[in-house]
Amino acid sequence: MGQHLLSIDDLTNDEIEKIIHRAKYYEQYHPFIRPQFQNRFVANLFLEPSTRTRFSFEIAEKRLGAEVLQFQQSVSSIIKGESLLDTLRTLESQGVEAAVIRISEEGLLRKLSEKVSLKIINAGEGRIEHPTQALLDLYTIRKYFHTVKGLRIVIIGDISHSRVAHSNAALLKRLGAQLIFSGPDALMDDSLEGTILPIDEAIQNADVVMMLRIQFERQKMNYISSKESYRAEFGFTRERLKYLQPHAIILHPAPVNRGLEMDDEVVDHPQSKIFEQIHNGVWVRMAVIERALEGNLRWESLSNKEMYGIGISGFREIS
Amino acid sequence: MGQHLLSIDDLTNDEIEKIIHRAKYYEQYHPFIRPQFQNRFVANLFLEPSTRTRFSFEIAEKRLGAEVLQFQQSVSSIIKGESLLDTLRTLESQGVEAAVIRISEEGLLRKLSEKVSLKIINAGEGRIEHPTQALLDLYTIRKYFHTVKGLRIVIIGDISHSRVAHSNAALLKRLGAQLIFSGPDALMDDSLEGTILPIDEAIQNADVVMMLRIQFERQKMNYISSKESYRAEFGFTRERLKYLQPHAIILHPAPVNRGLEMDDEVVDHPQSKIFEQIHNGVWVRMAVIERALEGNLRWESLSNKEMYGIGISGFREIS
Amino acid sequence: MGQHLLSIDDLTNDEIEKIIHRAKYYEQYHPFIRPQFQNRFVANLFLEPSTRTRFSFEIAEKRLGAEVLQFQQSVSSIIKGESLLDTLRTLESQGVEAAVIRISEEGLLRKLSEKVSLKIINAGEGRIEHPTQALLDLYTIRKYFHTVKGLRIVIIGDISHSRVAHSNAALLKRLGAQLIFSGPDALMDDSLEGTILPIDEAIQNADVVMMLRIQFERQKMNYISSKESYRAEFGFTRERLKYLQPHAIILHPAPVNRGLEMDDEVVDHPQSKIFEQIHNGVWVRMAVIERALEGNLRWESLSNKEMYGIGISGFREIS
């Protein structure tokens, strides 16, 4: 029985570990795996524009051998007034087993998940959840650090409107990270536990600097007086690279507003792992789709020895 | 030699029976069939918006192993003023063997079919034809009744603008059904043979209640004074469920305007087979695509005994 | 190591010959070749509308067994202000090995090609380059003539705004053709070497008549006083068929503005090879994609004897 992925909170620590483990298996062996999901259908329903995440899921699905249906709102019968529930029930009647959904409305996915038998994968939900992004960020962090426990992870930008921030905060807090937030006061989120610091100090203290995208489309821009002043006060500018510790890594969910939240020199800095995050997203999503289609992931696919042998350590130390 | 499917009238009774038979074969054995049409190309040209039917065809094509090209008017060179004939001739020059077309203009498909060698499958044509919908409705009806002959089939709603009604009326009349129509006087179609009854009486008399979608986009809404009054006078409301015979089934081509032509309680009623229709559509369309690519369908793929053994009877009794 | 295809000028004569040779191999043997690029990804990024060329590439890619990603500007995150460079770096991080790009901006593709590791195939660039169109035109010409050397090739229409004209002129000139241009004075291009003749005389002298599409979308129409006067003065009308030599062939990149640059009788004339060009495009693009994914094409796949045996001669005589 396949499983939904609606929220980071739905995953046990053991399940998180299995997804990371399985993703590493796919990264390592993808040229050799057989297309295990041939003749099985997954639909990608992106009700908000997306290229990167949509392609990441599509590549993951196709590497697994699944058949992919693309749903684009502008050319769909949602314009006929059809509800999303009826669309999902239609898809499952047609034999579709999983739906990857991006949606701006918050809370709808969970309600839908109780009424359908196909499995829903949350690919971005309003301001609240983006679980596969948090999982791929975790995967990337784990490539550079033995464990998340005790890591000082700084999240910088518009915390309050960011689903990336919310899913990551939930995941990393649970795994024992020490969270620090930075950004305009009006864009902080009181509901999240953590320290708030000015950006210079935040970077100085960081093992991981997680920058957020300024979401022009999802917030009132009157929080921000001007791009120049935002960059100067809250952006990761080239001048601020001097605060970065030599072992720290820089993350961003992409696409970057270059020259706003990050300067080119920071995006392209050797300690920036932005394109590696994108690379890692494919393997993590392969694991998430396998979980949606097959249910609980198996441990036995890759021995601990193999995992250690390829440069990742600490994989069983999560708690 | 593959064959067009432009109209129900083009099919002999024997061909209809073969399509139903073959669809049942695909429903029964689809997990085990090999992808027989690998490296063969089908194009889906939906010149009117569609999700359900487009996905149904796409899934059918992919289950057969065919390669699928998606054509969307908004991003195509029809905006360059290219004619549909030149588009089809282009596609056939590129090796495409069949085109599934939805179009509002009536009569064009037949003219085109005489000038191209690729095979055209009508996926909805103006107000006049939707042959695969009628075939999947027949398939669904045949799952519940031994034969169509003598069945009282009630079609309710906007008959005059409905291609579903026209294709179904042509098919079911020919197979011996007794047709009853119901709906606003202005939306009846004098050219169709059958009895016209008020909705309560129509439902009381029905073995099959076939509801139609109110096509906001294809008619002048001034036929309808208000949604509330339409629902009260012509809709299948929860109150009217009391008229439904215990053996009768309810069909609708979907998507349903819930609360207009049908109440939620009717859509989700145990005797409603709406999502089963959608399910059946995939198998019927697999047969239609096979016919387009290969020509006449074979009988021998499934024995009569097998067909009877899986709960369908009367399959050879058509006349 | 795969290779970009940005411009005809990047190809050596030997490489051109190999592409033609390989295309013939695919035309001859495509039903029997195995899908050699399974689990390898190509993205089609058409930033200008296209049906014909996009489908041609998609079919070529799928015939090779590659996985295809479709990128449509209207639903992409380019609307988020993401640069094309970041899109390409994203795609290559996700495992995409080649990108087929159509773009109106001139010169950008070359700059991008120096910054990415995936291979770029130019599918139409502003007014300057459309190398696969020129290659498929060459392939078509070579089916009817022993060699390009000495052929009188007439290009008629809006030379100055046509990327088809520019790529073809560069290719055919180099291979020894004698170029003649015809069309409105304001739409000639002084930078191209060749004779300018009135259309009647041009057709009389032609071994190959290459008509261009009037690009309403890419030029100021005030060059043209009216459609009627353009057709009369510069179009290939039915009346001008009398000037056509019996051995000459007519080409057009399509889609044709019927009744403007060409009359129906010319499009559908036996000496018109327009739909054969479209057919040939698939094989040529298969060779170009193989080159992008694998690097230098092999000679050994088809013997000269086989090539001659199937009606093409002069294949090694290019110089």
Task: Give a short overview.
Chains A, B, C: L-aspartate binds at residues 80, 163, 213. The structure is a homotrimer of 319-residue chains. Chain A has 319 residues and is α/β, with parallel strands linked by helices.
Descriptive notes:
Three copies of one chain form a homotrimer. Chain A is built from eleven helices and nine strands. Chain A is α/β, with parallel strands linked by helices and 319 residues long. The first copy, chain A, has two domains: 141 residues, 3-Layer(aba) Sandwich (Rossmann fold), CATH 3.40.50; 146 residues, Aspartate/ornithine carbamoyltransferase (Rossmann fold). In chain A, the strands form two sheets. Chain A has a five-stranded parallel beta sheet. A four-stranded parallel beta sheet of chain A has the order 2-1-3-4, with helices on both faces. In chain A, helix 2 links the parallel strand 1 and strand 2. The longest helix of chain A is centred in the last third of the chain and has 21 residues. The two termini of chain A are 26 Å apart. The relative contact order of chain A is 0.18. The C terminus of chain A is likely disordered. At the A-B interface, strand 2 and helix 3 of A face helix 2 and helix 10 of B.
Keywords:
alpha/beta, 319 residues, disordered C terminus, Rossmann fold, 9 strands, five-stranded parallel beta sheet, homotrimer
Which value, in Å, is the CA radius of gyration of chain A?
A: 19 Å
Oligomer: homotrimer
Strand content of chain A: 5-15%
Categorize the overall geometry of chain A.
globular
* Main beta-sheet strand count, sense and barrel state of chain A: 5 strands, parallel
Strand order of the largest sheet of chain A: 7-6-5-8-9
List SSEs of chain A in N-to-C order. HEHEHEHEHEHEEHEHEHHH
Q: Helix amount of chain A, in percent?
A: 25-40%
Q: What is the fourth-level CATH superfamily of the largest domain in chain A?
A: Aspartate/ornithine carbamoyltransferase
Structural class of chain A: alpha/beta
CATH architecture of the largest domain in chain A: 3-Layer(aba) Sandwich
Structural domain count of chain A:
2
CATH class of the largest domain in chain A: Alpha Beta
Domain Aspartate/ornithine carbamoyltransferase carbamoyl-P binding (chains A, B, C): 3-142
Protein name (chains A, B, C): Aspartate carbamoyltransferase
InterPro entries (chains A, B, C): Asp/Orn_carbamoyltranf_P-bd (IPR006132), Asp/Orn_carbamoylTrfase (IPR006130), Asp/Orn_carbamoylTrfase_sf (IPR036901), Asp_carbamoyltransf (IPR002082), Asp_carbamoyltransf_Asp/Orn-bd (IPR006131)
Family (chains A, B, C): Belongs to the aspartate/ornithine carbamoyltransferase superfamily. ATCase family.
